[in-house]
Amino acid sequence: MYHFFTETELFTESEVTIVGSDVNHIKNVLRMKPGEKVLISDGKGLNYFCELTEIGSESVKAEILPEEVDDTELPVEVVLYQGLPKGDKMELIIQKCVELGVSRIVPVDMARCVMKLDPKKEGNKIKRWYGVSESAAKQSKRMIVPEISGVMKYKAAVEEAKSADLAIVPYEAAETIDGVTGMELTRRLIRGLKPGQKCAVFIGPEGGFAESEIELALANGLQPVTLGKRILRTETAGMFVLSAIGFALED
Q1: Distance (Å, rounded) from C-alpha 163 to C-alpha 178?
Q2: Distance between CA atoms of 180 and 182, rounded to whole angstroms?
């Protein structure tokens, strides 16, 4: 079943309207006809099975059906604070982490980031990244389209994340820090999450975290953890954590 997103205000009690680029996709690419069933969401929590009733050149209308939609979201909210990576790696990170259930992704400017996003181009970049998020959400039948925030400085990101129920910092030298007891600690922290709670995950860029950044994380109650004996690339580490959360917590 195809999945489409539209604006919240285009939902009524019995009908929903699709506008924008999806109209052409439905009409001319998929060549769908009235009577076909689709899943339509607003990206914020409204999700309905619908039957197409009218396919025009500017809009598509569909009747809302009574069948319930299965919840495809993780039982916890996961916010990924991703150190800005080089090249186009951010698009891969967004695509795969959205498929794995991330709720929000925050690009973070860290000390060892090679990439420095030009403020004049940031808006267009965020718009492109959101498009990647939306496409991945459609493909994986997500109930929401995860937000892609504007670039945040590391200190501000730590300040925001410290209010989460759990905030972890996967760090290659984590086991040199007092209280970090290998993967057993990582497993215990993840398994300790309860439905409805919020988990913040910090991933460093290619060069890793600066020592001062780990010190700031510790001072604000963030928990350094290990992800095992292998060193993971920046584009792999967030996927690893989300996979572990899904494996541990999903029914």
Answers
A1: 22
A2: 6
Residue with tokens 């060193």: 231
Q: Give the global pTM.
A: 0.86
Domain formed by 3-64, architecture: Beta Barrel (2.40)
d(CA 249, CA 11): 32
Structure tokens at 171: 């760090």
Partner residues linked to 79 by β-bridges: 104, 200
Q: Contact 127/135 with Cβ under 8 angstroms?
A: no
d(C-alpha 225, C-alpha 139), whole Å: 31
| Digit-coded pLDDT (tens) for 206-216 | 999 999 999 99
Per-domain boundaries in the chain: 3-64, 77-249
What is the distance between the alpha carbons of residues 251 and 235, in angstroms, rounded to a whole number?
27
Assigned superfamily of 77-249: SPOUT methyltransferase, trefoil knot domain (3.40.1280.10)
